[in-house]
């Protein structure tokens, strides 16, 4: 990878890290299309590893708003979803899988835009966790299902619970990818090189969080979810 290519990826990871630390998700959505254009072999491992660093820091920062029971139910669903995502990544064509999952996300976005607000109850959290595990492991874009369940919640609660979920979930995804041979040394080297960029993005999120009230956070979550699904569809169709 050229120096220019790395610089472009670094800028996208900086912005994605800031978004992840501000609305609770977005690392894969914002950065995955850029990485796919420059060095697709780095997906999804590099972004999942970077998201692990961001989510750990957000959990520490927002720990007082953490609901371990709700996060636990989401993780119950994440386990089978992660396994399914890793297996589907090996068995099925990536394009078809990505298009199907993106369509599901867009369906949820449309419902949310029409006023649908699924309550963060056990069943909904487990279902969203499974969908997020499947989507995140297969494509590195796993935020929308959880974002839809937590839409409407207060900012610190959204960030803390989604980050706790994605922290554990990202580790699960990395283990699953390693077990299926989808990680390689280039991913590890690029991840290490991007750590300073990730830290800068997290620091920048403190400024963004000052202007994100509950309504703005919901709007941002729905908008970013829709954008991520559209970018994923465009990526698979064009490339």
From TrEMBL:
| Source taxon at top rank | Bacteria
Q: Does the keyword Mitochondrion apply?
A: no
InterPro entries of this UniProt entry? Answer: TM_pro_TauE-like, TSUP
Keywords assigned? Cell membrane, Membrane, Transmembrane, Transmembrane helix, Transport
User: How does the UniProt record describe the way this protein sits in the membrane?
Assistant: Multi-pass membrane protein
Query: Membrane spanning segments where?
Result: 41-60, 72-91, 97-116, 164-181, 187-208, 220-238
Localization annotation: Cell membrane
Q: Which family does it belong to?
A: Belongs to the 4-toluene sulfonate uptake permease (TSUP) (TC 2.A.102) family.
Q: PANTHER family, from UniProt?
A: MEMBRANE TRANSPORTER PROTEIN, TRANSMEMBRANE PROTEIN YFCA
Q: What is this protein called?
A: Probable membrane transporter protein
Recite the lineage of the species.
Bacteria, Bacillati, Actinomycetota, Actinomycetes, Mycobacteriales
